[in-house]
Design brief:
By secondary structure, this protein is an alpha+beta fold. It has a single domain, classed as Bira Bifunctional Protein, Domain 2 (BirA Bifunctional Protein, domain 2, 2-Layer Sandwich), CATH 3.30.930.10. A four-stranded antiparallel beta sheet has the order 1-2-3-4. It is elongated and about 55 Å long.
Length: about 100
């Protein structure tokens, strides 16, 4: 498919550099809009240092290990699939809303 994707610089506390990944949603009869679907970044070496210190070994020492972290926002995809206009509906526990599913 010809889905437009963009990466935007962002801040996450445990990764640097960090990015958000957006896809362009183009629905018939509606204005196109960008939807954030994921966040990602290189794991900060301080994370590996803290893990090594906690474990008491050098298995994950930051001089020897690097990592890439990512997380996908399935809530955004659920919004598209079910035509939900406000993400807060998914986390408010309003039984009137939830009963639809």
């Amino acid at each position: 498919a010809n889905t437009a994707v963009r990466f935007r610089p962002h801040f996450f506390p445990f990764t640097e550099p960090s990015f958000e990944i957006d896809v362009k949603l183009e629905a018939k009869g509606k204005d196109a809009r960008w939807i954030e679907i994921a966040g990602c970044g290189m794991v900060d070496p301080a994370v590996f240092a803290a893990v090594s210190k906690t474990r008491g070994d050098d298995l994950l020492h930051p001089d020897q290990v690097t990592g890439f972290a990512f997380g996908m926002g399935l809530d955004r995809l659920a919004m598209i699939l079910h035509g939900i206009s406000d993400i807060r509906h998914l986390i408010e526990n309003d039984t009137r809303f939830l009963a639809q599913f």
